[in-house]
Structures
1.
Amino acid sequence: MIRLSQWIKACSLDQVKEGQLFGFHSDDKKILLANQKGKIFATDLICTHADADLSTGFLSDEGVRCPLHLSVFNLQDGKPQNLPAEIPLKTYNVKIEQDEIYVEV
Ligand code: FES
């Protein structure tokens, strides 16, 4: 089955202020939004190492740090910067239209 990507509306821009994380669910997808220095990134919400919700983690210049075992994931390519996580997070395209954030899933 071919699954075409589609843009889904995530939330309004003012729900993800600079330095903040925001998690949401859409059908079977669990997505994390992060506002790093005014730019919005979208990745999977659940850590690739175990079942940790990254929206309860910590955002820094390096990326998002998992709250459970503290791996940091780069927001552009999803790659873990330190163990124990070894598998990259999936990343998603983001667009902003009329102060609403959309993610391509
Ligand atoms: S659950 Fe995220 S690093 Fe272990």
2.
Amino acid sequence: MSGEILDIARTILREGLICDHCLGRQFAKLSTDLTNDERGRAVRLVLAMIADAQDDQVLRSDLQQPKRCWVCNGIFEELDVWAARALNALDDIEYDTFLVGTRPGGLLSENEELLWETAGTGYAEPLKSEVNREVGKRIAGVTEKEVEFTEPDVVVLLDIARDTVQLQIRSAYIYGRYRKLVRGIPQIRWYCTECRGKGCERCSFTGKMYPESVDELIAVPVVEAMKASGTAFHGAGREDVDARMLGSGRPFVLEVKKPRKRRIDPGRLEKDINEYCGTKVVVSDLCFVDHQKVREIKSEQYDKAYLVTISCSGVNRDTLIRGLDAITGVIRQRTPSRVAHRRSDLVRKREVYSAVLESFSIDSAVIRIECEAGLYVKELISGDHGRTVPSLSEAVGADVAVTELDVVAVKPVSA
Ligand SMILES: [Zn+2]
Ligand SMILES: [Zn+2]
């Protein structure tokens, strides 16, 4: 075996003068507690003794140190420079874990392939692995941060060909619940259907259907506090624009993109958001979570409770109470015409757990409805021209319509 290693080493050296890093890296899978340049020096030392013992002039000349290594083009003499550039880029961001990535560029990759064609890859590791590790060690030494392979807070990308250092900052995720105390605000920014965000007369050149949204109100103080590039809002379902969201609120996860600060006290952030949102939106239960939480709240089904104000002139109290009994239980609901453009046209069975009269006057009433996830409550009242059966309108024999709607509870079905 030892003969084989020395044969490989001699083959490598015949290809051209090479540095200790690049020589040693071809044996990286052997003696794994050494650095590649230590391996390279060891191999070179043994071959130098052989050259002396055999008085081998050719081998002696192949063993010279290169002015510039033909494989790495001298990159391993510049590790400190790359590390300093990386540290400089990392200087004003907050992170606990990092990873170095290297794009060697076409030239270095080709050199490495040329070498492997003649010398083989049996014990070798790629050049970029060694650069990543060596620069990583230098950064860790200075910052005392940890290298993390699966989900580092930041990836430092060394682009050798372009001679640049780029940072890829991992998103942060904030879980919370929001209450929407006013009507007329959508959950997420809603681009103008006419111009799709570019700005036109219809949207007064805002590009949006509504000037503000729960998403945007919450995002402003977060982007500022975390020095982020932007956010993406993930809600656990959503209420209509004209419905308030009350009770203990609706769960959401805010994805914070490229945060340059991530050691933020969620209690402090909660206070900042609530000060900024004034009387429109209130958040609570804020905490940092990992990205799996987005899928979790998106895939969860939520039962709801609503407070519904209805117009019901000509319907007396007893008829209304009987009507509420009639719509309690399983109903059949065909996809409402108002959402048919985004949901497939199906008849779904949904359960109304309870429908209770809260207050009654001559031509209006407030009722509390608790129902299964996915039930459209406005259509449960109106009947949607026979698409929801039974409905309150049908049960009382009059046109009954929702005038105001509040979501008062959102709770996971599994809970
Ligand atoms: Zn080299
Ligand atoms: Zn527009």
